[in-house]
């Protein structure tokens, strides 16, 4: 655990070198506690895998005060109960039609397509970080049997809702964008909808489980092919 | 309707307020003006609130037609501003009548100009801000840059104080800047030789610049780390990717990223960086966090104490 300067109005707390469910839970707890202890001096925070970036109002306070608040929060955290995130089920239409990399990923892994689907959907994933694009949730960790490196040539267009794997991470693309992850299916749930409150179905610290659905169910849930 | 009509959008004209805060955990970036100082002057010259919505004009080419009487002020880069084809002054309040045409040429000194209108453009905020971030399709009008025929709603304003910035206070957009840097993040992964190279070398602004980041060219800098676990990126952070060429991360940066960072440029200086054109020169100067704190407080007091000149 250490605290480093990030910029003129920000400090970054490093909780560990590697992430884990326990580390991720501490990031969450610290974030919630700092919201209270810093109050209006807080401008923004960025929780990630094993770190928390804290951006403060440098005209209202200085790094010594913020560092003190962080130290106090971290000291009290030792005995705190972990905050339980929600578990969210996301429907996924896995197929070669909706997941252009599914067949290749299965053959590289010496598995059948059905086995890949079973392995991907039986795991409960943790939301470790949100970034890259609004609503892009990094989920981990994928079973090593179906982990797959990023494509050597990223696609210029990955469709909204694409369920994808990169190394031991998985995600649902919240909007059409370029991307180099392996596409294995489509999720009809909007991962980011600015017109809705809340705008995202998940937040950092939540758990996500994919529920396989067929083509008809996918279309009935508003999915587009 | 009380509005300005966009006749020609220019290269990149964006609706901006001071930016979007408190939304990073949804993955939303800040947006907001690249040169906050010039943006603030434009609003102050219109006697607006500090967060009033204005336009950021990059490089130039914008033409607007006023559809109501109001007042405007244009600050920032020199863009040969004209009203009804007559040269008009920047850095002062200008009276506008319905039917007037306001046109921008192309930047001759600096790169970004700001146009504020009395009481601000009336744009509905999304996620607490009107700042346009095209990559996220958020803010402004449908999350897009201005295009011809857009309508920019504003208020009918018949009276406003006529002000100008004293000539002695107008910024000089030099063709080279020294960026003040606070060491931080993975600074220890850059050994003392790499740090000396970084702070003693001249860099050039490359042509790979956008609102996410400004890529520089020059002395290669090496980190002992290849990559890091993705983490939050603050404004002004200096990322050093594998090719060793620094990237200064600006208002529309990704909220998290996995490249090593040597530290961060203070916002007063990213504002000056934003006024450079490709090929212009940059060097870095190391300062302490305490020094940055003093610089920022002094700059704020100084800016507030500048008396604007009143005209009749």
Mean pLDDT of chain A: 94
Overall tally of domains of chain A: 2
CATH topology of the largest domain in chain A: Cyclophilin
| Series of secondary-structure elements of chain A, N-terminal to C-terminal | EEHEEHEHHEEEEEEEEH
Helicity of chain B, in percent? 10-25%
Describe this structure in words.
The complex is a heterodimer of chains A (225) and B (312). Chain A is built from five helices and 13 strands. Chain A has 225 residues and is of the alpha+beta class. The longest helix of chain A has 18 residues. Chain A starts with a strand and ends in a 5-residue tail after the last helix. Chain B is of the alpha+beta class and 312 residues long. Chain B has two domains: 161 residues, no CATH class; 128 residues, Cyclophilin-like (Cyclophilin). Chain B is 14% helix and 32% strand. Chain B has a seven-stranded mixed barrel with strand order 13-20-17-18-15-14-21. In chain B, strands 7-6-9-4-1-11 form a six-stranded antiparallel sheet, with no helix packed on it. The model of chain B has no long low-confidence stretch (mean pLDDT 97). The chains are: A alpha+beta (225), B alpha+beta (312). Chains A and B meet through strand 1, strand 3 and strand 4 of A and strand 16, strand 19 and helix 4 of B.
């Amino acid at each position: 655990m250490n605290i480093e300067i990030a910029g003129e109005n920000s400090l970054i707390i490093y909780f560990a070198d590697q992430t884990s469910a326990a580390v991720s839970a501490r990031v969450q707890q610290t974030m919630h506690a700092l919201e209270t202890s810093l109050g209006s001096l807080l401008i923004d925070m960025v929780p990630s895998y094993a770190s928390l970036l804290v951006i403060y109002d440098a005209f209202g306070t200085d790094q010594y005060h913020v560092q003190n608040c962080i130290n106090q929060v971290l000291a009290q955290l030792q005995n705190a109960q972990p905050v339980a995130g929600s578990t969210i089920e996301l429907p996924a239409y896995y197929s070669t039609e909706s997941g252009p990399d599914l067949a290749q990923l299965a053959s590289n892994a010496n598995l059948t397509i059905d086995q890949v689907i079973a392995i991907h959907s039986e795991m409960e994933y943790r939301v470790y970080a949100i970034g890259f694009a609004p609503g892009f949730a990094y989920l981990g960790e994928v079973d090593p049997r179906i982990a797959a490196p990023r494509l050597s040539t990223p696609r210029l267009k990955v469709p909204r809702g694409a369920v994808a794997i990169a190394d031991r991470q998985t995600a649902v693309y919240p909007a059409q964008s370029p991307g180099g992850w392996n596409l294995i299916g489509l999720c009809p749930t909007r991962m980011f909808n600015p017109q809705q409150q809340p705008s995202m179905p998940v937040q950092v610290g939540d758990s996500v489980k994919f529920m396989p659905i067929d083509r008809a169910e996918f279309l009935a849930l508003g999915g587009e092919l | 309707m009380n509005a300005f009509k966009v006749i020609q959008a220019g290269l990149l004209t964006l609706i901006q307020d001071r930016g979007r805060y408190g939304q990073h955990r949804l993955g939303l970036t800040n947006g907001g003006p690249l040169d906050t100082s010039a943006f603030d002057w434009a609003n102050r010259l219109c006697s607006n609130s500090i967060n009033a919505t204005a336009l950021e004009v990059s490089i130039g080419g914008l033409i607007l037609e006023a559809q109501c009487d109001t007042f405007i002020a244009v600050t920032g880069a020199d863009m040969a501003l004209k009203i009804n084809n007559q040269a008009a002054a920047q850095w002062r309040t200008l009276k506008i009548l319905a039917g007037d045409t306001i046109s921008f040429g192309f930047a001759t000194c600096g790169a970004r100009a700001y146009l504020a209108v009395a009481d601000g453009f009336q744009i509905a905020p999304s996620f607490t801000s009107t700042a346009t971030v095209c990559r996220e399709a958020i803010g402004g009008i449908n999350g897009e840059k201005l295009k011809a025929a857009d309508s920019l709603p504003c208020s009918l304003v018949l009276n406003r104080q006529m002000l100008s910035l004293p000539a002695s206070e107008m910024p000089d957009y030099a063709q080279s800047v020294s960026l003040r840097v606070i060491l931080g993040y993975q600074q220890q992964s850059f050994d003392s030789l790499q740090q000396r190279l970084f702070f003693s070398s001249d860099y050039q602004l490359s042509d790979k610049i956008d609102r996410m980041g400004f890529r520089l060219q020059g002395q290669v800098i090496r980190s002992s780390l290849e990559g890091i676990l993705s983490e939050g990126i603050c404004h002004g952070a200096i990322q050093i990717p594998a090719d060793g060429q620094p990237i200064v991360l600006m208002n529309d940066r990704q909220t998290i990223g996995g490249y090593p960072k040597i530290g961060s440029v203070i916002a007063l200086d990213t504002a000056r960086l934003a006024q450079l054109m490709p090929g212009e020169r940059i060097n870095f100067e190391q300062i302490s966090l305490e020094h940055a704190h003093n610089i920022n407080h002094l700059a704020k007091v100084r800016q507030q104490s500048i008396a604007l000149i009143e005209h009749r």
